Amino acid sequence: MKFLIPGLFGLAVLPLTPAFSETLPLPQSLIALNSTEGQSLLMESEAQADYFDLGIHFTNQVHPAFCGPASIAMVLNAMDVPRPASQMTLGLGLFDQENVFTPQTEEVKPRARIERAGLTLDELGGMFVAHGVSAAPHHAEDGTLDVFRETAIASIEDEESFILVNYLRAGIGQEKGGHISPLAAYDAETDRFLILDVSRYKYPPVWVEAATLFDAMNTPDSDNDGRSRGYLLVSR
Amino acid sequence: MKFLIPGLFGLAVLPLTPAFSETLPLPQSLIALNSTEGQSLLMESEAQADYFDLGIHFTNQVHPAFCGPASIAMVLNAMDVPRPASQMTLGLGLFDQENVFTPQTEEVKPRARIERAGLTLDELGGMFVAHGVSAAPHHAEDGTLDVFRETAIASIEDEESFILVNYLRAGIGQEKGGHISPLAAYDAETDRFLILDVSRYKYPPVWVEAATLFDAMNTPDSDNDGRSRGYLLVSR
To answer: Measured between alpha carbons, how far is A120 from A231 in angstroms, rounded to an integer?
Structure first.
């Protein structure tokens, strides 16, 4: 025989679990990849080659200032850059947010300073170069939306080349500061790029309009002498 | 003026970098997700709802015996199970391979023993139950390929339900022991399931024929009193 104890029964039903995750709400202008519309955009997208190479190495940044290091690890793995020796921590032979820091990257910016301030666009490029990878920073203020769009689509379609964006989150309606993540796909009909956002605890991957993203890159970065943010093209 | 020092120049060109990653070679019977054929299978697949929810939380196991804990973290995140308190280690508010271990899961199997021996199918179910999630283990020896196929497709299409497989790698032509990972998609024309393999340092996600996978699940697990491996259905 089972007795219901009112107090305990009350407790048992009290914690109504939320139906959705605790990521921050998205503005209507952005489309989550795991929404019905976001899935359709991927299926119909005109450029998506990098999505598959990046997606199988998609990772979550492990520190609030590590959007750069997380993006670097993803892209080095996607590019098949020769891997570091296996270790028993995060990576087991893949690049991760520990072994992405090397004596060479310390010369670019010491890890301790990255933990305090993250990476600028130019420092992001320097980190890739320190790993033996070609990297070309493009400050948005020096270019145009059309050139960015054309360059980004070509990079996404070329499996030897990858593109990362450095933008102000507030510029695309998110919370809120400077951020870095790779681009993975492009849909021509809606003129949107897919950002594989490495802050997975904060936002899902989103489809963002090219013009909105360009404007969010064309913002001054006080950590970089007021130069604008932008995008980085990397290739082996 | 620049002098070429023959010895150093020789050194600089010696390390011919491999064009591809150091994952193990796949048998011809398996199709990598990031191959041209693998990408097409995803685009044409009949069941793929779980792919998007799992893909945005795809992760790499951080310990050779943590295929189970890595799969659990992925699935709990994909299911939007209320998250643990934020921490400054791996997860930043998502489930990870640290906070997936709780006092309740210690009762199922202590972390120290999982590090030595991994998880059996039934222990995997117990770990989910310890997180407040319904879990139903199905030993392959108790069922049939047809029931597995039908059940797995329904679970993949139902975003409230997820399916994990526990199989002998050698049975699908891989190296080599027991393994656990979630299923993400199904292609009817080729009768193949997509395994989002959490050993990302070892193999890419692969499309495997349903019959091959079923046979690899229908193998005795000496850690589980000789009972066969199989699949686990989980839902909130």
So the answer is: 11
